[in-house]
Every structure is written in structure tokens, then in C-alpha cells.
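assembly run, all chains below
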Amino acid sequence: MTALADAASPDHLSFERGALSAWWSDTLVFAGRNIEHIRQIPEKLLDVTLQPLMFVLLFAYVFGGAITVRGGNYREFIIGGVLIQSLAFGMNGPATAIATDLTEGVIDRFRSLPATRTAYLSGHYVAELAGMALSIAVLLGAGLIVGWRVQSDPLSFLGALAVLFLFCSAMIWLGTYIGLVVRAPDAVMGVAFVVVFPLTFLSNAFVPINSLPKVLQYVAAWNPVSVVVAAVRELFGNPSAPNTLHVWPLDHAVFSAFAYCLAILVVAVPLSLRAYKIRTAD
Amino acid sequence: MSRTLYQEAVHHTKTGTGGVTARGLGKRFGEQWALRDLDLDVVPGSILGLLGHNGAGKTTAIRILTTLSEPTEGSASVAGIDVTADPTQVRRRIGVAAQQATVDGLMSAHKNLVMVGRLHHLTKAEAQRRAHDLLERLDLADAAEKLVKSFSGGMRRRLDLAASLVAEPEVLFLDEPTTGLDPRSRNDLWAMLRDLVRNGTTIILTTQYLEEADQLADDVVVLDHGRTVAHGTPEELKSQIGTERIDVTVGAVRELEGAVRATEAFASNPATLDEQLLVASIPVIEGTRLMEVMRALDAAGIDAVDLNRRQATLDDVFLTLTGEKGSDSDAEADPDSDSRNAEPTFEEVPT
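ok done. output:
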């Protein structure tokens, strides 16, 4: 009888068998928590829906007339740039959410539960990725309305989505790291702004690189954001504006975009895990 | 998969032998020891009270035992499992209600509890059933679907307690569970804790109130500046300091001794003197009448400014055990500096 009870005791049997699936189920519980927060405060979704929409309309109709892109139409050109800028600002989401959690007692509750340690962070990742998927849908939908079209083949289109999701992942983990190291939730906005704003504007996202002053052309050509934007344009078959400055990453945009995003992940994920451990020690 | 996980959770609660032991447990933050040389032996199905002021090391002890903090030295086991070697196994068997309510303000009470149940790897149905039951038991059923951020302090604490009970833990840790509760809620909580203990749960709670330790605890450990200054049963503690006290306020310092001498006949234990406030605090034999004390003082020619009968408090414990009131500050937790290191224990008191 005791032996039977011991055999049924899952310490030895089902835990080992189920470590991965326990992690996944914990991840979904944490992701569900974030989604519940959105259900309670739907305004939280504005930054991933309305804000990108505004950017598309703003650039298409306000700046669209003033900026010309040789070899194509500005509205087709701009979608790649607005996509990447909006998704880059997406790092605010996880950063604010995590920084807020850390200031509250609820994180102690999570740590005193037998849930998988990393599931808290992976839960945020899953929920934020879902939010970004919504952003991408809104942005592409808005693009279609203002006249943007996919000019390439289905395989390239999927390739573009792959770049976008990889880029989102990189931004989420970057945001996660920021959220874990800032000392107050209010600080997040400032940090994200200082990172994202110059990086996206000193790039090919909104204007052709050739239209920039000479010095800034170098900055923009080497800027990883330019590479990701160029990769997305290339895969969607959108005009990318002629660029007279040849640097290797920008000339091999698709490959480099994948490489940059993976590089960010390889650094940001372990850094985040380490920061989480440090922040939640004692 | 989830089926086995559910069985797992039930299994642990049914076979509980959840005692707690600690040996030489210590925690240092920078240069300061928040806790030093803590020894505990908590029998399964009993309540241990950790008694002390703010900054005495109570919360630090709880955080180590609940795997939230790693000890600098010493070792501890909860439900027979070493807290540093296998924290996950410990977490499966414990419930924690921290001082700061650890619930999610942006979710409903019900959803909070379901989330905790799911993170304990209960099935969805079981997590929901327990959430429902606990909300009933803790008188929160009406607020089940309300957002927690709209809760009052007392409701939050009850929800926090509910969250700590979701997994039917073998060992329950409660950090100052009744601070901020009104007397009725406090009595309800006490009744509930007694119920849990009857069903085999082991409880460690911290408190600043002597009365609470007396009412609930089978054993008491008195902490001051991270050090254990006394341990024993509440009866032993009371036999040393007395339960009831009469404070005699006099007009001048020189009258304090006289007041103590005049009331010697009523004293159950040595009196303590406060020369700043001019108060002689006399632990009195049960049934002593205020009038008798007044007459005795009058007969001795002591001009008592005020007489006050009251229950013994934590301050009395410290005054009796260490000769000082103990400290309420988190700032200077240096236990090596002064006379507080004298460690009178109850064992030394002949009974």
C-alpha cells in the first residue's frame, strides 16, 4: 500500500516527465494574467493598436506629400519603417509591466509557489508577442487602406513576417531587461524613448538614406534598424530607395536582419534571466 | 499530465509530516545581521509564534523558511525538506501570507486564487473549486468578481490568506496576520487558524502582540535585533513576566522604589521601572483589586498620580528579559553591541 502510494507520488515519476509541459503550463498562466490585465484595463492596448495606426496615417498623409522616393511610392516605402518603429516601441510594454510587478508584493507570491522559475518571464514574453501580433495586423491593415501592397511572392511574405516576429522577440527581451534593471516603472518610458527614437529616426525608416547629410548617411547605413527595415521592404517587394552608400550588412539586409535580431536575443535573454535572479534574491 | 499534477498536490497534503527545524540560521545584509543563531523545532500540527518588534528579524526568518531568501549561515528544513537544497519541493508544501498583501490588484479575487491554484499545478476545475470554497470560507464570496485593487486592507489580507491556503499546505507561514484587522476579523482568523491546526497543519506566525502569541501559539520564540532572547511555551513566558499588570505613576523618581515595596504583596513577578515616565509596572497576582493596591500605596505614603490596570505587552517581555524595551527601529540591527546579548531562556527558570 505504501509502495503503491509512493509509486503514485509524482516526485520521481511525473515531475521529470512533465518538467517541460509544467513550464509551458506555468507560462500560459502568467501570460493569461497579462491578458486579464488588458481585459480589465483595455486602454493598455492603445499603444499597440491606435498608436501604430496613427503613425501610418500621419506619415502617409502628412509627410507623404513632402517626401519623394525615387523608384517608388512613399506610402509603399513608409510601411516598413512605421512597422519597425512601432514594434520597437513595443519594448515599453514588458518593461513597464515587469518594473511595476517588481515594486509590488505579488512577485513574492509567485516566488513562493512551485511554478517554474523562468515561467514568469516567458509568460510576459508570450503575452507581449500576442500583443505585437495584433500590432502587425493593425499596421498591415492600415497599410492596405492607404495603398500599400505586397509586391513579392508568398514565400517572401512569410519571410517578412518571420523577420518581424524575430524583431518583436528581440524588442520584448530588450524591454524585459530594461524592466528588470530600472528602479521605478516611471523610468521605463524615458529609457525606451532615448533608445528607440534616435535609432529609428537616424535610419532609412522614414526617409531615404541619400537624403540625409553626409555624416548621418554613415550612421544610418550602419544602423541595425535600417537593416531590418530594408529586409522587410525587400521581402514585401516594396521600394527601398536607391542607396549610394554601400555597407555590407545593408547590402545583405535579409541575412543581416536575422543575424542582428538573433544576436540581440542571445544577449538579452541570458541578461534578463540573470537580472531577474538578482532582483528577486532576498 | 495535469491529472497527475493534481494528484501530486493532493498527495502532499494528505501525507503531511510538516514540521520545521532550523539550526544556527543567520542572515546578513551588508555589515548587519538581520538574524543570528536561530534554532527552531516546530512539531507537526503546532503553532509557533515569533514574537518581536519591527526589525527584530521575524520577517527575515519567514523569508528564509519560505525559500524567498537564502540564509547566510545555518540550515533549515520545512516539512522535512532542506530549504536551500530543494526549494521547489518546499514550495509545494507551504503557504505564505506576507505582511504586504501579495495579490494582483488588477484581477478579481476569484481569478487571483485560480491563478495561484494553477501555479500549484492543480487542474483548472480543481483550482476553481478551491477558489470558490476559500472565498466562501473567508467571507469574500460577495466580492469574488470584484477587482482586488478596490478591496479594503482587511479584505486584501483575507484574500492573501486564502491564496496561501489554495494548495492545502502542510506548513503555513503568516507574517503579522492580524496587524490592521479589527477585533472581530482577528477573532475569526484565530478560530480559523485553530481549525487548520486541528487538521494537522503546522503554522509559524509572527506577531508584535503578546496576547496573540498567548492565544494561539504552542511555543514562542522572542526575537530582538535578530537574536533569540527567549523561547518556551506561552505559559513559561507568562510565569516569567506575569499576564496582568498594574502601572503606578508617581510624582518623582525616588518614589518608584517605594511604590514597588508597598505593592510587594500583590506582585507575581519582579516589577519593572521606567524612570523617564515615572512608572512602576507591577505584574500582579490574578484577582488583585485596584482598590487594594491603592490602599497599600496610600498606607506607605506614596502619592500615586495614576493607576492603570492592563494586559502585559511585548515591551514588558523585553523589559523583564533584557532590561530594555527592545527597539522598534530597522536601522540599527547590530546585535553584538550591547547587553541585549544576554540570553535568558525560559529553561533557566525553575518551574
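Chain A touches chain B at residues 5, 8-11, 13-15, 18, 21-22, 25-26, 29, 32-33, 36-37, 40-41, 104-115, 281-282 (CB under 8 Å).

Chain A has one domain: 42-279.

not gonna interpret more than that til we talk
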